[in-house]
Write a structure and sequence with these properties.
By secondary structure, this protein is α+β, with helices and mostly antiparallel strands. Helix content is 52%, strand content 8%. Helix 13 (491-518) packs antiparallel against helix 15. It is globular and about 90 Å long. The two termini are 41 Å apart. Residues 1-6 have low confidence and may be disordered. Residues 299-460 form the Acyl-CoA oxidase C-alpha1 domain. Residues 491-674 form the Acyl-CoA oxidase C-terminal domain.
């Protein structure tokens, strides 16, 4: 029997035979999958070395469950300690493996590779994932030297303050003001109402001593649009709030326990004119305003943020899929045939339908997120050459991808939690923590419905370009085709169907907007009343991009670099993803091509065949993601499959079990039971 002493563990040092049986049945080499997934031998080798170095002395008592038992203050302190301990390790590893580089420090500090080192969250995530890049892309070279390099080295800590208590995604509605005072060559920043207070920025509460503030710029009381300002908010020595600064933590949240999201109010806070980031728009000393060559450049940093969110959420889904799949390989419940032994729950087709599509989705989404990052960097290079024609497309695509990856992960993690039954409800499963983290992505950096409407506007403009005979952006090049010739059910045919369905829904939405305006509605009213179709078209656009990219990766030139066995597995996963996407969107596909009942039955048969083919490889595929146990942080998902021992040991070590009789029994329960009232 286990005790509260973790030194006397009941967890076997052997691998559960049920999960080993799964690994023995795999039809491909797991190492081949890991090499493909992580981009080659050098990347995989470095990843494993960094993980082993960082996790070597980690306190295993620090789990998600133990963090959740702490007070809000204690969680923040633990998160800060863990983050800085990790920062120190990464700095040493950078010097050891690549002196002078930035790929390890700070490159890995805010990514998912080392989440297990910070179970309470990272107060500096936004600092490194968005803030430094924003200064680099929005500030001049001189400003990056002054602020960016200090931020990159964590000599200063900065928050990215965009969202306000009263405004989020609608940036033009931001109430924070920055008025230029030409007499002193300064900007004066104010949050004139309570709703103007900055609210939610990660790390703002008590970690940051600077903030990159998004505010509406005014010169001679005339609005010039939104600009970014580097504002000192705490003394660099004492960390006390500076004059005019009202700052603090927003309090407990559904997740992101130690991220230190904060609020910020400013009253007549003065900063030098040169603290406005001026790579694109400038304010000169005499008050002359030089407009940005492209308005969208001011929001380009958010595109990077959405790329980062998309990739991270696919990792969360992959972690959850690994946990639930491994659990399903050792959990036995009921029998399929009478008088037969209990079977693994993964043998039930209904369980496979909960698990395997999520594995396929995290793979498809991740490949698309990598493609999005490539397109972002291409746009970044184009901007430096003075080419801005790709800004509209990368904005729309990053919005669509952020929506698809966050909604896929949030919904998928919840399905996977349910697939683990009651044990999935335990904090020690880590599924609730993953869900609370993933679902936050549906809101921050652009609420998903608002982003879909922005994608919808891009699609409306694209449809108008089709009608005018003008060229289309590459990712929308198919919008001219709103009908298919015939249905075959092949992979290419399904992708074409999704694209035609996108085109059809787009043109239908445009037609309905025109009809509503003809009936007397304003353009805004017509767009609002067509909002459902606009968001549906935007979702189809995102799904079509993911599906087409997945098809290209699996069947294109990259297939020649992989083993036949691995290609066969990836083809199986691709088929499952595409067939399910076709069935999920059949209501839209019906409108663009003739499909018979037999065709739908054939798709259903393909779905079931894909599940059956994937069954022997499911655990091995998740092994190929190559998550160390410390990154999973789950009693259900460890590599050795010793689920029940881990669950029970975690329960025995619950802080409430330190004493056989809790104090509240003597102070409240016993007196009440003994009372005669």
């Amino acid at each position: 029997m286990a005790t509260s002493d973790r030194g006397s563990s009941i967890i076997p040092k052997t691998v559960n035979p049920d999960i080993q049986e799964e690994r023995n049945a795999a039809t491909f080499n797991v190492e081949d999958f890991a090499l493909w997934w992580h981009g080659g031998e050098e990347n995989l080798k470095r990843k494993r070395y960094v993980e082993s170095s960082v996790f070597a002395d980690i306190d295993e008592n620090k789990t998600v469950a133990s963090i959740q038992s702490l007070s809000h203050d204690e969680i923040y302190a633990a998160a800060m300690e863990d983050a800085l301990a990790l920062a120190g390790k990464l700095r040493k590893l950078q010097k050891e493996l690549n002196p002078g580089g930035k790929d390890i420090w700070p490159g890995l500090f805010s990514g998912p590779e080392l989440w297990g080192a910070m179970p309470g969250g990272n107060p500096f995530t936004v600092h490194f994932s968005m803030l430094v890049d924003a200064i680099r892309n929005q500030g001049t070279d001189e400003q990056f030297e002054k602020f960016g390099k200090r931020a990159e080295n964590l000599e200063i800590c900065a928050a990215f303050a965009q969202t306000e208590l009263g405004h989020g995604t609608f940036l033009r509605g931001l109430q924070t003001r920055a008025d230029f005072d030409s007499k002193t060559d300064e900007f004066v920043l104010n949050t004139p109402t309570i709703t103007a207070y900055k609210f939610w920025p990660g790390g703002l509460g008590h970690s940051a001593n600077y903030s990159l503030v998004m505010a509406n710029l005014y010169i001679d009381n005339k609005p010039k649009g939104v600009a970014m300002f580097m504002v000192p908010i705490r003394d660099e020595e004492t960390h006390m709030p500076l004059p005019g600064i009202d700052i603090g933590d927003v309090g407990k949240k559904l997740g992101f326990y130690g991220v230190n999201n904060g609020y910020l109010g400013m009253k007549n806070v003065r900063i030098p004119r040169t603290n406005m980031l001026m790579r694109h728009a400038q304010v000169e000393a005499d008050g002359t305003f030089i407009q940005s060559p492209a308005a969208a450049l001011g929001y380009f940093s958010m595109v990077f943020g959405r790329c980062w969110i998309s990739a991270n959420n696919t990792t969360m889904l992959a972690i959850a899929a690994t946990i639930a799949t491994r659990y399903s390989a050792v959990r036995r419940q009921g029998s399929i045939n009478p008088k037969q032994p209990e079977v693994k729950i993964m043998d039930y087709v209904t369980q496979q339908m909960k698990l395997f599509p999520e594995i396929a989705t995290c793979i498809a989404d991740r490949l698309a997120a990598l493609k999005l990052r490539q397109l972002y960097h291409q746009t970044e290079r184009d901007i430096k050459k003075g080419k801005y024609d790709g800004l509209g497309e990368i904005h729309a695509l990053s919005c669509a991808m952020k929506v698809m990856c966050t909604s896929d992960s949030a919904a998928g993690i919840e399905r996977l939690r349910l697939a683990c039954g009651g044990h999935g409800y335990l904090a020690s499963s880590n599924l609730s923590n993953l869900y609370s983290t993933a679902t936050a992505g549906c809101t921050y950096e652009g609420e998903n419905t608002v982003l879909l409407l922005q994608v919808g506007r891009f699609l409306m403009k694209s449809a108008q370009q089709v009608m005018a005979g003008k060229p289309l952006a590459p990712t929308a090049s198919y919008l001219a085709k709103i009908k298919m010739d015939q249905w075959s059910g092949s992979w290419e045919n399904i992708v074409e169907a999704l694209e035609c369905a996108t085109a059809n829904k787009t043109h239908q939405a445009l037609k309905n907007i025109a009809a509503r305006m003809e009936a007397g509605q304003t353009q805004g009213e017509a767009a609002n009343n067509t909002g459902i179709e606009l968001t549906q078209a935007a979702e189809l656009y995102g799904r079509s991009f993911i599906a087409a990219n997945f098809l290209q990766e699996v069947t294109g030139i990259n297939a020649k670099t992989r083993s036949p066995a691995l290609n066969k597995v990836l083809e199986n996963i691709l088929e499952l993803y595409l067939v399910k996407a076709a069935l999920d969107n059949m209501n839209n596909i019906f409108r663009i091509v003739k499909i018979t009942d037999e065709d739908v039955n054939s798709l259903q048969a393909s779905l079931e065949k894909s599940l059956k083919s994937m069954r022997p490889n499911a655990v091995a595929i998740c092994d190929g993601f190559d998550f160390p146990d410390r990154n999973l942080l789950s009693t259900l998902g460890c590599f050795d499959g010793n689920v029940y021992e881990r669950i029970f040991e975690e329960a025995k070590n619950c802080s409430l079990n330190k004493e056989p009789v809790p104090r509240v029994f003597h102070t409240h329960l016993k007196p009440f039971m003994k009372s005669k009232m």
